[in-house]
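Model: You mentioned two targets. I'll fold them one after the other.
Researcher: Yes, keep them separate.
Model: Target one:
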Amino acid sequence: MPAFICITCGTQYAPSAQPPAHCRICEEERQYVNIDGQQWATLDELRESGRYSNRIEQISERIYSITTAPKFAIGQTAYFIKGQKVNLLWDAVTFLDEETSRFFEQQGGIDAIALSHPHYYCAVAEWSEEFKADVYIHEADAEWIVNPGSRFELWSGKSLQLSEEFTLHQLGGHFAGAAIAHADIGKGIVFSGDVIQVASDRNWTSFMYSYPNMIPLPIPVIKRMKQDISRLVFDELYNAFDRKVAPDAKEKVLKSADRYIQALNGELFDT
């Protein structure tokens, strides 16, 4: 049976004879149903269309970005980080083809896949099976797994160390289990998905409950996230849409949290 994919959010559902009646990811207030209505595809259909490919770019000695072109669904960027002992894929994209598989095989494979939040679960079960990689999802977001793979690992608490270099940290905010990845490389690197979103002005970031529907987070949540972020050491931050904050990324994220709080308190501007 085919595993149907929602073309608006890119989430792949468990195999079924017919497409699901609804996409529960899109019908939730942090996402949206396409204005043309719910539509479905399969990974085979995407491959056979000949339209899509994954653009893989080396952005540093050990980091590669992966983005599907032309844009499919949300259009997020995933990151492949080559570790000393563990090769990590941070977040994922829906599209997977032979060319993509060959690239990762040439790089030594993928050992672990860590996901920031449910909007990027996409077709991760396919990726997990293809590369025999364990998938790490915070248990607070387990209810959003609509196509559970055999290698899915639910983690709990505030952090999970995957290796000497890679640690996951639960920040909450965008989702209850929303997480970021910290890489102990150079002066420290954070991969934030859009749990921490990079602004058009790369000196600032923001934090939202819903980006497409523009629902902000409350002040107490931002204060808690700021406190958790302040414990980390990092100089660079990569988000899910090819945006980078560097140098002094930590200082800029903390200043951004303060500005967000001032704005909600009515202290930042007078209009």
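Model: Target two:
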Amino acid sequence: MSADTKKRVLIIANELSPYTEFTDFAHILNKLAIKTFDSGLEIRVIMPRFGVINERRHRLHEVVRLSGINVIIDKDDYPLQIKVASLPNARLQVYFMDNEDYFKRKSVFRDDQDEFFDDNAERMIFFCKSALETVKKFGWPPHVIHCHGWMTSLAPLYLKTTYKKEPVFGYSKVIYTAQADQFAETLNPNFMKKAMISSEIKDKDFEAFKPGTNSALTIGGSRHADVVVIGSDTIGDNISDELKPSKTKKIVKYDEAWKEDVSSLLELYKSLTES
């Protein structure tokens, strides 16, 4: 554990009320972020700047000092633009990962004909890498990293492999929220090739992700997390079978009470910052 007495929590999520709301957990994360801040823990939130997010209404502005990061995906460079806003009714900051190719479109995961975007895999890879590179640029070592939503599922894998030796992540405990499937499609065939972002990731590390289904992403993200929070009461049997308590992994069962009171999740954060 670092000698620094400040306890830091990072939430990486693809939904957070009031910006994007796909499941009930968007509101739960909002309450949790505010309660975490109010408890005295340092907290920051990172999410995609989807084109449906109104920058003027939510008062997003570019963080110039963090500019200049290029994210490489399969040898192609994609410039990262980082924007920030203050969460309404709170003083904590939300950082938005933006890129012209991946996030300017005025829809989230599907086109006007309700077709799943063919590049959703690349958008996920870009977002996960962007989030971790941004934390490196902050120089802000989090004790707890809570990854929420299928678009964050690669982050636990990357933290345990490619970014394992980065000092900023040297004592981070990783939480992953496992949810019910939100898409029935399969990611494009190039998913595995592009997601293997470094030689530190071995085939066995990526095994669970290979099918490219929503369930595969959930299982993959869960396998590489230290703690798994069950984020839905309708989670599939295949995921339930995977998520059994073990000596090396803690499983937190879904609690309907979280919609009103997130105290137990805050206590989870606090316990992990002390361990």
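Researcher: Noted. Anything on target two?
Model: The chain has a mean pLDDT of 93.
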